[in-house]
């Protein structure tokens, strides 16, 4: 009898990967102090990142300034960075989108402040492939007390959500009222 060749496939340790893109643009946020949309975005990024780490995901934090790098585990780098992060003066998310390289495999999560329809289209076009893309969009004007409300037909956050949803993203929109503890 001829022995059948035995094929061995090297086992690889495969872990899920997630990229969290945090919008830190000063122009994309409103409100002040701990009640600002910027602080809410930071808290959301921390909560999401810690949850992903506890679920065994390898992660990467990216801001509109680019990828956040450093020694240590994702969760530690994430929390250390978010503890001291400041708003940026960047006009858009282009540098962050490029650094995130959302065309690669893995979960892509965006936590964004004010997004124009054009910014949302660029974000939507940046993500291709079969990996899930999720967006947490902040309805920023709701964090700015005393400002005139936007036209009742559709807010910028709703427009951006529509663009991303049409592109296959899962989108949630958060208002200041919904972010307050009950």
List the SSEs and their pairings:
Layout: E1 17-22, H1 37-54, E2 58-63, E3 66-67, H2 74-84, H3 94-100, E4 107-112, H4 117-126, E5 133-138, H5 156-166, E6 170-174, H6 176-179
Parallel strand pairs: 1-2, 1-4, 4-5, 5-6
Antiparallel strand pairs: 2-3
Helix pairs in contact: 1-2, 4-5
**Shape, principal axes of CA atoms:** globular
What is the typical, i.e. mean, pLDDT? 85
DSSP E strands, number: 6
Strand order of the largest sheet: 3-2-1-4-5-6
Structural class, please?
alpha/beta
Query: H/E element string?
Result: EHEEHHEHEHEH
Short description:
The protein is α/β, with parallel strands linked by helices and 182 residues long. The chain has helices at residues 37-54, 74-84, 94-100, 117-126, 156-166, 176-179; strands at residues 17-22, 58-63, 66-67, 107-112, 133-138, 170-174. α1 (37-54) runs antiparallel to α2 and α4 (117-126) packs parallel to α5 (156-166).
Would you give an account of this structure?
This protein has 182 residues and is α/β, with parallel strands linked by helices. Helix content is 34%, strand content 17%. It contains 6 helices and 6 strands; from the N terminus they run βαββααβαβαβα. The protein has helices spanning 37-54, 74-84, 94-100, 117-126, 156-166, 176-179; strands spanning 17-22, 58-63, 66-67, 107-112, 133-138, 170-174. The chain has a 6-stranded mixed β-sheet with strand order 3-2-1-4-5-6, with helices on both faces. It is globular. The N and C termini lie far apart (74 Å).
């Amino acid at each position: 009898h001829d022995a059948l060749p035995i094929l061995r496939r090297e086992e690889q340790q495969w872990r899920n990967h997630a990229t969290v893109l945090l919008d830190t643009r000063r122009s994309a946020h409103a409100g002040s102090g701990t009640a600002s949309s910027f602080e809410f975005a930071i808290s959301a990024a921390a909560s999401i990142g810690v949850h992903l780490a506890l679920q065994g995901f390898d992660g990467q934090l990216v801001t509109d300034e680019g990828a956040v790098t450093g020694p240590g585990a994702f969760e530690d780098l994430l929390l250390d960075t978010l503890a001291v992060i400041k708003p940026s003066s960047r006009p858009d998310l282009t540098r962050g989108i490029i650094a995130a390289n959302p065309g690669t495999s893995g979960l892509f999560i965006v936590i964004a402040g004010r997004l124009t329809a054009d910014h949302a289209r660029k974000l939507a076009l940046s993500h291709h492939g079969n990996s899930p893309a999720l967006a947490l969009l902040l309805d920023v004007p709701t964090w700015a007390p005393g400002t005139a409300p936007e036209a009742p037909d559709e807010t910028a956050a709703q427009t951006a959500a529509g663009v991303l949803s049409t592109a296959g993203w899962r989108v949630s929109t958060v208002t200041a009222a919904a972010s307050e503890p009950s």
